[in-house]
Amino acid sequence: MCLAVPMRLVRRDGDIGLLELDGIQREVSLALLQDSELGDYLLVHAGFAIGKVDEEEARITLQLLKEVADHDEARHDF
Amino acid sequence: MTSEDAAAQRGAYGDPRAVAALAAKVKAAAGRLTRPVTFMEVCGTHTNAIAAAGLRRLLPDSVRLIAGPGCPVCVTPVGYVDRAEALALRPATTVCTFGDMLRVPSSSGSLERVRAEGGDVRVVYSPRDAVQIARQDPSRTVVFLAVGFETTAPTVAAALEEAEATGVGNFTVLSGHKVMPPPLHALASDPEVQVDGLLCPGHVSVITGWRAFTFLPEEYGLPAVVVGFTPTDVLRGVEDLVRQVVEQKPEVANLYSRVVTAEGNIKAKAVVERYFMPQDQIWRGFGNIPGSGLGVRPEFARRDAFAIEVPVCAPVEPEGCRCGEVLKGSINPPECPLFARECTHEQPVGACMVSSEGTCAAWYRHERFQTGDIP
After folding, report:
1. If you measure CA to CA, which chain A residue comes closest to B206?
2. Facing residues of B252 across strands?
3. pTM (2 decimals)?
4. Cβ neighbours of residue B122 under 8 Å, at least 6 residues apart?
5. Closest chain A C-alpha to B182 CA, distance in angstroms
6. Taking CA atoms, what residue in B is nearest to A34?
7. I need a surface site. Which of B153, B235, B240, B256 has the fewest CB within 10 A?
């Protein structure tokens, strides 16, 4: 029920945004967001954008996961 | 970031190498435990993610993961569904609902059955769709079944705001909304429930902010983590909970910082506050929990579908169903005598089997094959 999907904001008209994910487009209300810019990744739930995905934080998490995986692989190489 | 980048990111969060490495880290951390521990997640999406990825099998025996009251459809009491059915059978009334409420057992059937008998029940993707249905036919009263936690309540409040702003007078809501902290207080202070740490619900936290959960370490000494929904997210969370137990330093660790902040979505919280107020609410398995629900504010009483008089009888729970104990984490689904016998995904008896996010549904779909709990 609390499932939310990140989609990219590609167009906006007032409080209505057109969001895209893997070629699928959906009209979503932006009424619950303080601000948003074209290109932002927004978390979509029940027809509303409820939050933004922080790209810098996402990058840090991914880097961390990569290091964990690489470290594990290096250990197996021994 | 292009959509290919986004796809690559999503893949990376489930990277099998990272999953294996994190599982090894959990095992290593668990080596420092002096006793077995039980961690609870309270989000249907976590329940499903854990079951689908088979994460329980990757954890050492000393670390047990259980599910709590994280599925809003499952904790919705029978009486609410009975009232929704009565509204659907009322003349000139349309009931709009998210799809997963359709098959939830009522005292005598389900909304799906009421629809087959001629009741006007429509499945919508968003509460905004229900406002649109109301706008198109002002002669009918439209009732939206407002079920969900903090994640969903703002979308309903925003729909109410849209109806107010655009003069859609026939849009109403039957609020069964619930908020997470009160049942967590109830669980943390229940001597029968042995939980050593909480995986906090990620998308509830997008709205509430992670600070909403600081009472867990501060009042109960319980470790807590806010995590996302990929296998790596969950394993990082489990590792952190183990670390907090070992170091005896409970806190709320935010491991979902790519979307969760300390304060959450302030605008969303404000719109909820404008239309809803705290009220007592009945949770399946828990009974009444003071202040755990959101009722429509009296100044918007004409939007409150609970004010519409319909005939409802005393609610009847399905016989033999142990959903209540499953929701408290006191039993796992296979311990219910109905599980996978009378109660299957095709012919569900209890709400936890009906909802795609229910604990019984997750076990039925994924884990009974992994654990050998097939009757």
Report:
1. A51
2. B224
3. 0.92
4. B94, B95, B96, B97, B133
5. 18
6. B267
7. B240
